Amino acid sequence: MSVSHSSWTAKFLAVVRYEILWNIRKKKFLGMLVVAFALATLSLAGGHIVSAITGEPVEPNPDFVINSNVGLGGFGFFLFAIVTAMNIISAEFESGTIVPLLAKPLSRTTVFLGKLFAAFLTLLATYCFLMIYMTVGGFVVYGPQNNLHLVPLSLLGALFSTLIWIAIVLFFGTLFRSSLIAALGPFGIWLGTNIIGSILAVVGGQGWILTYIPGSGNTGYFGEPPPLGVEVETPLGIAVSTGTDSIGPNLIKYILHPSILHPSWVVTYYKMNMGGIIPGESPQMTWTPLYSEPFPTVILTSIAVALVYFIVFVVISWYVFRRAQVTE
Fold it and tell me: In sequence order, which residues have a C-beta less than 8 Å from that of residue 286 and are 6 or more positions away?
């Protein structure tokens, strides 16, 4: 049993090494570092860009690093998923290298898991570089930073958010054996969920749907809720994004603010109501509270959604890869 296990481990690590060397040889890893550097620099320079336009001085911000979400937003997580996973399976079919690869004494499961793990290591290395750069840059640009011991939570949240899309990209690439479709298919899903989902959430009051879709999720307001069903002029409380993209920031909020655990403090979701439009004036809008839930529930739900999406799409991709017909 131990000999068999050691043999499988050796084969698995050989696939991981093969994939990482391929990423280095094709300058994929270097490209990811360049993209990470560019996005992080843009995030760091944002305050100075606004200052140059408005003339307002750049104020010290001791919470910049822990609030930066690794310097990326939802599109950044999606972009890194595309770059990381769009060709880890499909490129083997497109170039024909899948034939000699599967001719080796390796099971398809070993090949699949080795490639997936190599993609994870590549992503982890890129995000670690990004976090170090953001931490140093935040100190230089915005002064001494608070709560840097919570930076790993930002890293954890970024990994959760990106791994969902990696699984979806991997699914498209494995199913269609095309790197182009592996990129365009998930992009259509990302675009549709962000545009259509936002309309449903704000106007239709169906924001709960976004809770179960990868991305920014629903927007709630944290604080003591107003009576449900009673219209208010503006949502009450602090805006909170409840989706998988906000796992890291929400975990940090949960640790930094113990008052969040107070039973009277919850996340409340609203529906926007459009009133009559008077010429020359802004449209009259009111907000109706729909429902509330505890903040810890929001965090646990977003983590559960991330895990379910990742596991489901990875398992489907693995099954498709195992059943794929390979012709020379």
Answer: 231, 232, 233, 272, 273, 275
For 233-262, the three-class secondary structure string (H helix, E strand, C coil) is: CCCCCEEEECCHHHHHHHHHHHHHCHHHHC
Q: What is the pLDDT of residues 237-270, one digit of tens each?
A: 778 888 899 899 888 888 887 665 566 678 888 8
CA-based nearest residue to 191, from 209, 213, 207, 175: 213
Which of the 8 DSSP states describes residue 212? G
Would you say residue 204 has pLDDT above 70?
no
- Tell me the percentage of the chain whose pLDDT exceeds 90: 24
- The counts of H helices and E strands in the chain are 11, 4
CB 221 within 8 A of CB 270: yes
Question: How many alpha carbons fall within 13 Å on the CB side of residue 86?
Answer: 17
Closest by CA to 321, choosing from 171, 197, 187, 183, is 171
Rounded (5°) CA angle 244-34-43: 55
The token pair that represents 162 in the structure block: 């990106």
